[in-house]
Every structure is written in C-alpha cells, then in structure tokens.
Request: fold
Amino acid sequence: MSIIKQKYSRSVAVNMVIANMIGTGIFTALGFQVLGTGIPDPFTILVIWVLGGIISLCGATVYGEVATSINKSGGEYAFLSELYHPLLGFISGWISLIVGFSAAIASLSIAAGEYFLPLVSSAENPAVHFLGLEIPFTKIIAMIIIIVVVAVHINGVRIGGLFQNAMTFLKLGLILIFLMMPLLFLGSYEASEVSFAPSEDSWDMIFSLPFAGALVWVMFAYSGWNASTYIVGSLENPRRNLPFSLIVGTLVVTLIYFLLNFVFMYVATFDELALQVDLGNVVAVKILGDNFGLIFSAIFSIALISGVSAMFIAGPRVAQEIGKDYKLFEVLGKQSISGAPKMALYVLMLISILMIYVLSFQELIEYIGVTLSIFSLLTVLGVFILRRRKNQADSVVKSWGYPITPLVFAAFSIWMISYFVQMKPIIIVWFLLTIVPAIVIYYVTKSHKR
Reply:
C-alpha cells in the first residue's frame, strides 16, 4: 500500500508568498531611498513601489506557466536545469541556499531581534560573553528564532502549514493596526507635512540612474513573490493553486507596501527616516511615545517570524531537489512521512546561523537583490523557450499578457542590473566569486548525478 504524502493547501501557498515578501525590505528600503543620493521625492518613491509591484506581478504570471510546465519543486534550481543546462540550475540552487534563503533568513531574524530587544533589555547594544566571544543580544535572539521555527517545521507539512497561516494572519493584523495608527492618534504627533504631488524634479528622478539603484531595494522588498513555486511538487492542485497564490499574494503585498510607505512619509520627516533600518520603530515611537511605541515595535517582531517560517518551507525544497538529483547530496533529499525534509532543514538552519555573523546589511541587501534578479530574469526569459518547444501539457497555466509581461519584467531587470554594472561593479565581482565553488562542486559531482 502506497503512502500518501501530505501536501500544502492553497491558503498556505498564498500566505507563503505574503510572508516571504513582507520582511526586512519594506522596513529598511525607504531609509536609503530618501537620501540626497537616492530619490528624495515622495511622489517618485510611491511610483517606484507601485512599479515594483507591477514588475513582480509580470514575473508572477510568467512563473505560473514555467512552474506548471516543469512541475517540480525547487524553484529556479528545477526550472533552469530543465530550460537551459543542469550546471545553471545547480548554480542557481547554490545561490538560493547561500544567498536567497540563508542570508535572507539571517537578516530577517536579526531584524526581528532588533524589534524585540526593547522588551528584554534597556541597555545600549547589550551583549553576551561566551568562551571569550562577545555576541550581541540581538544575534542571540535571532538564533533562538531560527531554532524555534525549525523545531516547528520538523514536525511536518500539516503542523508547519498551520504555523505559517497563523503567523501570517498575525502579521497582517498588526500591519493593519499600524496603518490605522496615524488616524487613531491624529493630533498626538507632529506629521511631516510632505507633499505627495509630483514636483518639478519628479519626472527627472523617475528616468535617472539612482531610480534604477533604488529599484534594487524595492525588488529586494518584493522578493518572495515566487515563493510558492518552490513547493509546486508538494502543493495541492498546483495548476489551480499555484498561479492563484502568486498573483493574489503579489497584489495584496503591493497594496500593503504602497500604504506603509505613505504612512512612513506622512508621519516622519526624511531626516528622521534617513538610514534607518527599523522604520517601524521610528514611526511607532513618534505616534505612541517611547514606552508604548517600543512595546508595539517589539511585538511586531513576532510577526516578522512568519517570513522566517516561509523561507524554511521554501528553502529546504531546493536542497531536497539537489539531494534527489545528485548522489553525493542524497541525504538532503530524504523526506519523512509527514512531508518534512528534515536534513535539508538542519543544513539550512546551520548555514543561516553562520550567516548571522557575516552580515553587512546594506551591501548584503544590494548583493541579494542583484543576484536573485539575474536568476529570476533567466527563468522569465525561459517562457520563450517553453513556447518554442510546443510540448506543454494541458495542465499548464498560460501566462497572462504574453509576450508583454515577460518583456516588461526582463526590461526592468536588465535596467536595474546594468546600473550596478556601471555604479557598483564590485557586486558583480562578488557574484562571480560566489558561483565559482558551485561550478567546481558541480563538475566534481556530475559523474554521480542520478
């Protein structure tokens, strides 16, 4: 008698997309966009966040076709292996594990620790001394968050799915309260009095190179719109539920991002927002005062855990698919009856904890944004390869707006990447250095490929 594996529901898939997207990006990006070297114009900033949603939506509809055509978990690892070459897929899987998930989990956990810190310590930069090492308390909290989330998901798909839904609903509820606070406490704080109407400089900024640079921060905040494609093999009725989760999740987050940025700029001045990586703290404290504001911000850290949880659903699926394809990594491909890829979860947990100690926030965010954009670009362009093959099954969901949607996504991705080639070529050097170990490992293990 065959064992029926448990699978994730549509609601889990939608919540995965929402939870993956709403993380550190939305609460940090604006702090760098309002600088004089960025795009310090309210209208232009709102435009770029709407544009980010449109670009993500274009990518989401194309990913629906690619994912249902290939019908394998693992995201870009599976897609690029089928569309181009197994080497490119392996590089993508390597990047996903090291950068896309591990680094993102680490940064999101640290952000949650920063928000939670006021509840447990009033000291400035508190640290714990252990074996001669000084470990910041925020990093201790971050590691605890990672371990707790893994402990939940190790119990299987059903428990992990319930936890994901609960944490995402909590996050959305807190964000709704946050968005209502400026109205509920109107008169108790001094608003920024900025104008959201287009200025004389708005259109020049929209067509400038700094706009492309700011787009990297925006697309990092939107990264995760493709999250449910990583579990397509473990999803109920993927033909129906996958495109639904991608599009609905992206639309919900686009609306939330627009409203959050409006609230940030309405409540706080550009000087108060500049270079801040905890914008939620800045706004909450200004509206509610030091005590209640910090308590609200600390509670909000719990909501950020939903993003960590979503990444621990998607990330291990990449490691699991690599384990299925390469004998050397077969231990990663094992899955329990409850659907938990236990060893893959442990590996991602260890890498994430290690990444906590090597984070340089701004450079890391830009590096993640550019790197993930390259592989997303290749995946979206792969839809033209699929159409040329003309062997798609009836179960494939056709991308809406083809060929305009993939071309829009590709055009803006290339524009954004070209900005960094010109302005910050060192990030491209880092990218090339990161993929070298993947190439070496691929050719060492290729003879053992299943």
